Amino acid sequence: MTTPEWNNSGHGGYGGQYDPAYGYPGYAPDQHLDQHYPPEQTAAAYPPPSYGYETYQAQPAPAEQPYPLPQPAPEPEPAPAPAPTLRTGSPIIPPGIQPALLTAVLAALTAAGAALGSPALAVAAVLLQAVTAAGWFRLNGMWPARQGIALAFLAGLAADVGLLAAPADQAPSVILGALGVWILLILVQQMRHQGSADERLSSLTATAASTALTVLAAGYLAIDGKAGSHPVVVGAVAVAVATVARALPLPSAVSVVVALLAAAGSGVATDRLTGMGTTSAVLIAVAAGVCALIGLRVASYDFPSRFVHFTAGVALPLTAAAPVVYVLGRALGS
């Protein structure tokens, strides 16, 4: 085996003589670089050293616009949603002077009908019963309620016919009988109701209450005694006077007192026309005035509408007074 010969001259062991001008034999540094690395690549491969300083190059200033560019119009902000309106204040709104005047007209018709006789009084009672039936349903938020209004109104008509046909002493039996029969019809009618249990209960109570009020309004036809129809005249006039006085623009407590005093004064005045006695006339008038104020209070509850004021607000004062006028008229006139 042949081993290569090495030059022990201490110049790297290339096996040749070192020439100071050319280096080792067969080695040309410049020629080597020219062949393998062109000057531009050599410069790119070996960039000059950097010492952490960067050359600042000034950026050209942006060209100014001779005219300002048009800016897009800002979009309009959406309008805020309206805040929900809340009802504030007292939920009691009296019907006012116009319904009070209508009540006075209806009361005057009742008093005139009582003076003329039972047929004329029956006409006034029918008008009162029609307004009572419609107003009570609307007061309870039920409209339209044609079947309920029709049932209540027909119950009142049945009571009127029974009172005109039966003897005077049978009036309570006629009124109770009419109520019993028509309440039974109402129960049958409500069994066909397709609503929920709460709706059926509300409809049943409203229809039953309207029927009861409409039948009780026929109590003006049931009065008969020594005083005749005089209690009806006294009570109707007292209702008219008290209702109008309550509608005057006065403080609430003051108007109540004024209404009751006006009702008592109307009793004194009607006593001179009827001759039934001052004490009896004043008692009937004051009692009728109290019932009229109660009817107005019921018709004024819970933000009622204008329709309620012109139906329930007109009829309830006179309807509420009918049972009291009947009871006191029978007791004081017998």
TrEMBL record:
Can you tell me where the transmembrane regions are? 149-166, 172-189, 201-223, 235-261, 273-295, 307-328
Keyword Zinc-finger included in the entry's annotation: no
Q: Where is the composition biased (Low complexity)?
A: 17-30
According to the UniProt entry, the coiled-coil residues are none
UniProt superkingdom: Bacteria
Key word Transmembrane helix present = yes
The record's keywords, sorted A to Z, are: Membrane, Transmembrane, Transmembrane helix
Q: Where is the composition biased (Pro residues)?
A: 63-83
Task: Please list where the region (Disordered) is annotated.
Answer: 1-89
Name used for this protein in its record: Integral membrane protein
